[in-house]
Amino acid sequence: MESAQAEKAGGAEPSVPSAPPSSRAGAGAATSRRPLWALAAGWVATRTLIVLMVAGVLRIADTDVTTDISVIYHSWYEVLRTGTFPLDDVTWQYPPGAALVILAPGLLPWSYLVSFFVICGVVDAAAMALLMRAGSRRGRSYLGGWYWVVGVPLLGPTVYCRYDIIVTALAVAGLLVMMRRPALSGVLLGLGGMVKVWPLLALIGSPRGRRTRRAWTSAVASAAALGFLLTAGMNGAFEFLKFQSERGIEIESVGALPLHFAKLAGAWNGTVTMNYGSVEFLGPWVPVITKVMMGLSVAGFGWLLVWRLRAARWTSATTFDAALCALLVFTATSRVISPQYMIWVVGLSAVCLTVRGSSQRPVAVLVLVTAVLTTMEFPVMFGAVNRSELGGVLVLTARNLLLVVTTVVSAHRLWRSTRRREALTTVVLPAEQVAPSYPVRPGIAYEQDLLDDLTPADRA
């Protein structure tokens, strides 16, 4: 009808019939699937590089990072399969749940080394799928998935040669479900805590009220249940705790920097040796530095407690932001900072970036730079770091100082994002000055939500 009238009025072109709703829905679905295909392709490309590195086809350093699997992990496997923990091996420094990870490659038909790589790849893909699913939700972002695609390979072959990527995936899964299923979140984080302790730190940001009670209770219950089963079924589940008091200062930690520079200046006569599973400084000043680092850890976690008690605003991003901040405090003040620790930080940074309102975006950028410096320090220049040569010490110093700065920035931004905003002042105008009211279309709020959901690329 309108088309006919238009032709009579002035020979205008007839309007083109609109596409049926089914075709419009199909076009929208195809558009929404494009980021997922791009993310999947990016993951495959970057993980191919990691596989080439661990296979020795693409080498970035002379250090063979696979020996931890083929020698240390495999020797633990041989002991654990007999029903006992490695009681005589002081390099076993992990909670009893780690035994399940070490035993898992034995269930696969390939060699222990290849089976371990396969498990790491599958877990990596699972974490990627979780981040992609989180990014597809309304009001969320695919940036977390892209961060995982880019951030993990920056750590080189180490990511598939340590079991930390498995623990990170547990923490990622636990955090992503905390808002909707806090009990399941607590179970996952509790299990992660029994494998390598630090996932329990993610509970610091659990939303107040019923969600916190459910998450914390289920975390304690799952950790206690797994610990009981492993203690009852195997011998020496918690013997590793006896070794912790005799540790030195690991050469890659923040606390090791004064000893590196003192050694460069010829003012330190201690020893550098393999001690309790890592290369550590032993000798003068080590006990003092150990106490200082422990004091900084206590102070950091004390600040986190004060933050939680005083936080006035809680958004969907606060839970993730607080978990990342707590992990950074734990890492920066630890007397042991192995290169695989950065896998944890990359994982939680990716979780933060799935929420558009995260306060930790600048922190995530700093984490990427820290990851690059970590790979430069290990495995590329680890020999120079081990010998306290100037080049290695400078790279390590840059990495550690940037890690400290990243921690401070994270804490500052977390505090600011949750402080109480100033109350707005209401001004009552005389009747003759009141602005005329205009009708507001009922669908405007819905349309704004749709706009908020669009990425910059979609808006363009």
Automatic annotation (TrEMBL):
The chain crosses the membrane at residues 36-58, 110-132, 144-177, 183-204, 216-238, 285-307, 314-333, 339-356, 363-384, 390-411. Residues 9-28 have a biased composition (Low complexity). Residues 1-28 are annotated as: Disordered. It is a multi-pass membrane protein. The keyword Lipid biosynthesis does not apply. Keywords: Cell membrane, Membrane, Transferase, Transmembrane, Transmembrane helix. Signal peptide: none annotated. GO terms for cellular component: plasma membrane. It is found in: Cell membrane. Coiled coil: none annotated. One of its GO terms (molecular function) is hexosyltransferase activity. InterPro entries: GT87, UCP010361. Belongs to the glycosyltransferase 87 family. This is Membrane protein. It comes from Kitasatospora phosalacinea.
